[in-house]
Specification:
Strand content: 25-35%
Number of strands: 18
Radius of gyration: 23 Å
Distance between the termini: 20 Å
Helix content: 10-25%
Structural class: alpha+beta
Strand order of the largest sheet: 11-17-16-15-14-13-12-18
Shape: globular
Order of helices and strands: HHEEEEEEEEEEEHHEEEEEEHHHE
């Protein structure tokens, strides 16, 4: 059995909010990693001159792109009377820049959050509109992804202290894109993402593996930036999908806080990258973004088949989440058993250290150490 404090950390971060959906005043008590970059969406999802309503980590966000291509994110609440800015419209200012107009009284805000106009003010008013702002969330486009910085301090309006992660193996445009919303807290979504033992039971497919095809696995792990990595190795012989790549594929699997997992497969001078990016919508819902890049010929030759298979794979995980949700609502104590659950322990250790380092204003100290794990799957 795991130590009592580790076992409790699996489901206990904020049970009251998980059940009720009500926000708590202590950001670090909400069960999320704050002061971190999250995948907001893919770059093609945002059209110039458009903005749309989103929610990240329980925060209402207006996510948009200006006509000149700049991505922005604002708190989707007008500071005047709390109307949703997303219910308004994108306005073109006289200088050609974009602003968002509140539907209630027409207050307009630029992509930087600064108020541009309050129509009710008279020409001789001495009210200083430069003092009016709506919260801005830093955003960066990188590798075809839009990243959003979720700060623990709602007054934060500067540049984040670090750039978003760089994912190795991104080449060209994605070959496959899919997403699915899980009715589950990100902790449990991540644990399903990094769990190595559920494959024969959840993902039973002729092209992947069967319930009876279980082998003992022995894999080496090492610490990596804000997480851990299963070092490069030959894929398991009972994972049939790798066979279409031909040659002698080698794979490396990395997990990085707050909710990123990527598998980078190389076959000679060709590669496949599969990224799973978990982004909390709120305490009870998490979005899984699944993206694959490749310059391997198989992704052209077998694209329709691979697309259907990948979609089925993701929805099998969604079905298991549906089976978990009623039980998790009872907030039961959970068990971690053997090496198969070691990555779950590491996740919670890394997460606690992440939030502690943010609270204390110091560098993250990775608690993971080099280790070889063994399990059957």
């Amino acid at each position: 059995m795991p130590p009592a404090d580790d076992a409790a950390a699996l489901i206990k971060p904020r049970p009251a909010q998980i059940r009720s959906g009500k926000a708590l005043p202590d950001k670090f008590g909400e069960g999320f990693c704050w002061d971190a970059w999250y995948v907001a969406c893919l770059s093609p999802d945002l059209k110039p001159g458009k903005a749309e309503k989103r929610e990240y980590l329980g925060e209402p966000v207006l996510l948009g792109r200006t006509r000149t291509g700049q991505v922005y994110a604002l708190r989707d609440i007008c500071p005047h009377r709390a109307a949703a800015l997303s219910a308004g419209k994108v306005h073109r200012e006289a200088d050609g820049t974009d602003s968002v107009e509140c539907p209630y009284h027409g207050w307009r805000f630029g992509p930087d959050g600064a108020c541009k106009s309050i129509p009710s003010l008279t020409a001789d008013s001495d009210f200083d509109i430069s003092k009016v702002r709506v919260r801005r969330y830093p955003t960066i486009e990188s590798q075809g992804l839009v990243w959003i910085w979720m700060a623990s301090d709602p007054r934060f309006d500067g540049q984040p202290p670090e750039p978003p992660p760089t994912i190795p193996g991104v080449t060209g445009t994605p070959k496959l894109v899919d997403h699915l919303d899980y009715d589950i807290h990100i902790d449990h979504a991540v644990l399903g993402l990094i769990d190595p033992a559920h494959g024969p039971f959840v993902h039973q497919q002729w092209w992947w593996r069967t319930k009876t095809s279980q082998h003992e696995k022995k894999k080496s792990f090492c610490p990596s930036e804000a997480g851990f990595t299963m070092v490069r190795h030959e894929p398991s012989k009972n994972s049939k999908a790798y066979a279409i790549l031909g040659g002698e594929p080698l794979t490396e699997i990395t997990f990085r806080l707050p909710g990123l997992r990527w598998e980078h497969v190389v076959v000679g001078d060709r590669q496949v990258l599969a990224l799973s990016a978990m982004t909390p919508i709120n305490a009870g819902k998490t979005r899984m973004n699944q993206i694959m890049w490749s310059d391997h010929w198989a992704f052209t030759a077998f694209h329709p088949v691979i697309r259907v298979a990948a979609r089925a794979f993701l929805r099998q995980d969604g079905k298991i989440v549906q089976a978990q949700t009623p039980g998790l609502q009872c907030n039961p104590p959970l068990m971690w058993v053997g090496d198969a659950d070691q990555q779950a322990r590491w996740y919670h250790q890394c997460k606690r250290e992440w939030n502690a380092s943010r609270r204390e204003g110091r560098a993250f100290v990775n608690p993971v150490r080099d280790q070889t794990l063994r399990w059957r799957t």
